[in-house]
Amino acid sequence: MSTAPRLTALDALHRSLGATMTDFAGWDMPLRYASERDEHVAVRTKAGLFDLSHMGEITVTGPQAVDLLDFALVGNISTVGNGRARYTMICQEDGGILDDLIVYRLGETEYMVVANASNAQIVLDALVARAGGFDAEVRDDRDAYALIAVQGPESPGILKSITDADLDGLKYYAGLPGTVAGVPALIARTGYTGEDGFELFLKPEHAEGVWKALTEAGEGVGLIPCGLSCRDTLRLEAGMPLYGHELTTALTPFDAGLGRVVKFEKPGDFVGRKALEAAAERAETAPPRKLVGLIAEGRRVPRAGFSVVKDGVVIGEVTSGAPSPTLGKPIAIAYVDAAHAAPGTEGVGVDIRGTHEPYEVVALPFYKRQK
Amino acid sequence: MSNPQQLRYTKEHEWLSTAEDGVATVGITEFAANALGDVVYAQLPAVGDTVTAGETCGELESTKSVSDLYSPVTGEVVGANQDVVDDPSLVNSAPFEGGWLFKVRVAGEPEELLSADEYTAFSAG
User: Fold this and answer.
1) Lesser CB count within 10 Å: N end or C end of chain B?
2) Is A20 in the B-facing interface, judged by CB distances under 8 Å?
3) Is the overall model pTM greater than 0.90, yes or no?
4) How many inter-chain contacts (A to B, CB under 8 Å) are there?
């Protein structure tokens, strides 16, 4: 297997912009262009432009495409209307989370599953394996798309100026085919930042032109290119889980506080149903740990894997942590024993290289945009 | 980026000024500041602490990581930059000037400190 990093269609452009690049799930991706804090603030207050071409697109088509997805995923995909999207998960037989996904319904019998880059092959393999007996085709479309996101309060105005699509009619978690800067694109009102914004799936050969058109359209309103570093702090403030941190195969959606994505009421069996029913009951009667937010009183930053402590005893573990540009303090998401997970629990700290730094327990998210 | 000629450097990316009245100033290089990203927290040695060349004496925390701060020389700390403690972004905006970290009364320095040209070659690496 080659260890050379994969490059997106925008690679040369990132380098010309002076991006600091990083390896992410085998891809060479922009970490930041200049200051990641400025990039974060731009998305919260103006707009930011992201290359997310590392995300894994898988197309499922055919008369029984929806039946396959209802069987393979934990969500009720048959209730997703044409042109709409749904956040969902794919689990193992034992209920462990393989990945979290967005499923877009592109047509009557056509769906696009978007997986995390690190799990795209796993999701593809699982869907292919679970497709047996269904009249449906699973297609690896990872190389068919580049993905550009424009996120932030100015993003509707920016995109509107270079598309003929009806953005006002495009709701959150909806997607429609349209033309952006003269080329075809699937325009989705989704994101991972906690702000209004759009994700544009387009042919790789069109990526550079669309990126430049968006840059030009956003010039007067403060749009700047943004890297994965600020994407992480944006999603963290918004309380959104990241696979490999809050979500793993060792956890069910119920353990992650996301049991609502599991739809037992849907007809027919689905992979993991039995184990998830048991997990739902466990979560109800004897929750082991809960996902909470932590806000630092001091300035040292908690990182994934650090212990959460109370009275010298370990009561949990940090899964994600970073300095929050919006709050001006370090924040973390952590799994904490249910007994100590209530907001305002006294005496909770994080062990930061041997020192127990005081932290406030809060409910997630840390940040919610004003609509 | 250019590394000032009058400073000397370590392979841990600290710089050291020429001592005046026995006191030298320590900071991290622009290369290191860029590699760290936005510095959000600086834990500096306290005045009166003894630091030892090549040993950790503090930490710099950025959005993505935390890095140990190494002292390039041995001696007693006679000053720490409160401006950086209050506003760690100075390390990014002015690493060789307002973003200096601490001052040491030099008791001994290692022989392997790099010149500006040597460090430039090293960090281009």
Assistant:
1) C
2) yes
3) yes
4) 40
